Amino acid sequence: MFPDADLPARQDLVLTGVTAVTMDPRLGELEDATVTVESGVITAVSTEPPAGSAGPGTRVLDGRGLIVLPGFVDTHWHLWNSLLRGTVGDAPGRDYFSVKRGLGPHHELDDFYWAARFALAEAVTAGITTVHNWDHNVRSADDADVNVRAQLDAGVRGRFSYGPRDSTPADEPMDLDDVRRFAGRWPAERLDGLLDVGVALRGPYRTPAEVYRREWATARELGLPITMHCDRCLREEGCRSCGLTRLADEGLLGPDMQIVHAVHASAADIAALAATGTSVSLSPITELRTMGFPLVSEMIEAGVPVSLSTDTLAMPTAPDVFTTLRAVEAVETARCGPAAVTPRRLLQMATIDGAKDLGLGDVTGSITEGKRADLLLLDAAASNLLPTGDVIEALVRQGRATDIVAVVVDGRVLFENGRLTQPSARAAVAGADARRNALVERARVAGDWD
């Protein structure tokens, strides 16, 4: 059962007296700034006092003591398996891949919908306003449609990438006819400016040439952005290449292509990514747990567009962007020295670089006039941020998700005063345990779980 629509209306807002960390290189950081939002659009960012009185219905917020940031952008997240959290662990047969294979086939439509809503609710509380829903368990047209509906119902910006069902045989193509129909069912005018659609392909290391070439050709014929995991090595001894030069030689890389992980990329792989304008989405926490060290410094130094992602809630992780940024800085300092990544570059990866990865650089990722109003308000007086020197260094090195006091997506206030504003979002969180338990029981009855 899906909930009635309860997405809050857009609000016209005037935020006064805020410290604006705009992530716009022309504006930088602004003290005592005013940010104006009308009909979901940022219409002014200024240090001048607002002219005249606000219009009727406009909400004016005294932002003294608050920091405003652009919303975080997550560029690779398997929303469909979010209800597997709590079933994955270190015991035999309880690793991520075993659990995913065992429980994946037993997801019903309600599970796909509520798993996505649960993850998106957690995203909002963490200040993530854009999510790339990377679905590698599309078993039917309805599965894909309910994922899109979930993201529209949640009011979170992003992309839905249509992939094959979990554990599809290597020689079996994904349902390309339904990919065509799916793209036709969800034209831009149905997506409210919040979403676009793409495809998640397995590529040449999981499928034979006749499969992956056909899938690539269909995606490009339809003009759909493509994403692909590059994680086959995992922790294999001596693995020193992702083989991305092969994709380059076949003309499969390019600005419409996103590679995920690439932890074992060689220098030649990285050069191929940079030369073709191919972006990379890194998931540092899950990569450190299961694959090795993400090559953040090497990618940046080569000029590869790099963004950040959660990957999945099923593994022992959480979409806490501030914690991820600190972990990346610590690891890169240990690996490559203190100049490898800066707090500013890390915050850029989580905002404007992520937006550019998803083709949304003109829509979100910075506090810029004309962009959509995807904003975070944080408590500048939080003890962990004081005393504050450089505000970006303070946010990256000491920030916490608990510092967030409000989250706005497309002009809609989705989180305020420690509470999700949507009843359906709160219901997604409250019902997660019961839905996970019912899923496990169905698998147990079928003999796929013990």
UniProtKB/TrEMBL annotation:
The major lineage groups are: Bacteria, Bacillati, Actinomycetota, Actinomycetes, Micromonosporales
Species name for this entry?
Answer: Micromonospora inyonensis
Q: What is this protein called?
A: Cytosine/adenosine deaminase
Q: Which InterPro entries match?
A: Amidohydro-rel (IPR006680), Metal-dep_hydrolase_composite (IPR011059), Metal_Hydrolase (IPR032466), MTA/SAH_deaminase (IPR050287)
Q: Which Pfam families does the record match to this protein?
A: Amidohydro_1 (PF01979)
Q: Name one GO molecular function term.
A: hydrolase activity, acting on carbon-nitrogen (but not peptide) bonds
Q: Which positions fall inside the Amidohydrolase-related domain?
A: 67-413
